[in-house]
Amino acid sequence: MIVILLLVVAAFVRNSIFSDDLRLWGDVVEKSPARARPHYQLGYHYDNKEQYDEAMREYQTALRLGLNPGFDRAHTNLGNIYGRQGRFDEAIREFETVLQLNPRDSPAYVNLGIIYVKQGRAGEAIRAFHAALEADPKNAVALYSLGNAYQEQGRPAEAMSAYQDALRINPDNAEARNNLGFLYGAQGRFTEAIQEFQEAIKIQPESAESYNNLGIVLAQQGHFGEAISAFQQALARGPDSAEVHKNIGIAYSYQGRLEDAVREFQTALRIDPGHAGARAQLEKASRMLHDRKNIK
Length: 296
Known about the structure:
Elements: H1 2-18, H2 21-31, H3 36-48, H4 52-64, H5 73-84, H6 88-101, H7 106-118, H8 122-135, H9 140-152, H10 156-169, H11 174-186, H12 190-203, H13 208-220, H14 224-237, H15 242-254, H16 258-271, H17 276-295
Helix pairs in contact: 2-3, 3-4, 4-5, 5-6, 6-7, 7-8, 7-9, 8-9, 9-10, 10-11, 11-12, 11-13, 12-13, 13-14, 13-15, 14-15, 15-16, 15-17, 16-17
């Protein structure tokens, strides 16, 4: 009976460890501290839980212990963490290490290009994205990222082409649809812009950005009632957006609903006191409201 009880207790302890990946790999690392792979796995689970300092420590330990050089995900994951932290030079070093191990690693070129964009090095980013596409012509993320880099450089025609190519490969990229819709709107191609924003909303129904973009294009066409409905949908998903409050305020102004407009501009400034657009619109609407009351 005692032996059976001990076995039951041991099984319970082991099951409790396996119920939590962090505890599992922490247990493996504790028992085999000189093995590289458990440190990587523990880092991976810390990474998923956004415990980045702990993740970096484990990835670095795995690499120091001689993680298989062909197993480049530790370098990739380290680079991504460095990128999130704004440590761009260190991120670049990790992605370049991946490319030294595998010069045809398309995602590594994409990661490198994204860091270049963040540094304002759009030309180098474009070269990196083209290298990614040479390695894998169907890399939709590379095409989407290329479109962003072209947009940074003020090259809308090339950006549109890249977004369109990305969407042919992955039609469910809501961000690409949003960006393409924005470019259509800037060209006055409102029907196509609306179509892209509506598709983006189907893909991501909780996207405040897509509803806001849709509202802007509808307002540009003078459809202020529909624009207000779109902005209200955006606020339902992101009530703390000063930009959306400003946009709905402008739409109210065009409808002559100046009290409602003033309220929205004031709300925008409570959220973001430095929002110059909202302040200018508030002053304009307040003057119009004052003039209206004086006329009466």
